[in-house]
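Predict structure. Chain length: 134.
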Amino acid sequence: MIDTKTAPYAALLLRVSLGILFLSHLSLKVFVFTVPGFVGFMGSLGLPPVVAYVTMALELIGGLMLITGFYARWAALPLAALMLGTIVSVHGHNGWLFTNKGGGWEFPAFWVVGLLAVALLGDGAFAIRRNRTA
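Prediction complete.
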């Protein structure tokens, strides 16, 4: 049974936490690896530079959408796809544990599950623009 009184706050907590994680992840790319460094890393994977810029834009815009609740349910889906992409292209070959060298796929997989939960739960409390539901 779902507690309908507290479920919106649970969705709020989940979506804001995930949004903050995306902004933190983006900050790592911008301030630690630097944008040129991240673009170079993506190139080392055989990906075109535009993928790096799309990734950073998704993390910024999607993270803000999650935090503010601006169509958060729909923002979660492309972000989940992005994280699946990191599993396939970056972390998957490093093994399960994220503490492995290069980071395994444990944490990105958990991120995907959280994002899918937001997509299924809905926007939650204090969303500035809710999705229409059936």
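Summary: The chain has one domain: 6-121.
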